[in-house]
């Protein structure tokens, strides 16, 4: 087992939360059908 320092442990938790939140937002926008509409803002 790899030993983690406290800093590495908290960094890992933070990254996991951020990744989970980002994935959740992406899934939500795909369900709404907005995920593929990003290019419309540039026009």
UniProtKB/TrEMBL annotation:
- Report the transmembrane regions from the record: 6-23
Asked if Membrane is a keyword of the record, the answer is yes
Report keywords, A-Z. Membrane, Transmembrane, Transmembrane helix
Instruction: Name the domain of life.
Output: Bacteria
This protein is called Phage protein
Lineage of origin: Bacteria, Bacillati, Bacillota, Bacilli, Lactobacillales
């Amino acid at each position: 087992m790899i030993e983690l320092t406290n800093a590495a442990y908290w960094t890992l938790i933070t990254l996991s939360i951020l990744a989970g939140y980002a994935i959740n937002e992406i899934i939500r926008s795909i369900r709404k059908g907005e995920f593929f509409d990003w290019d419309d803002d540039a026009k």
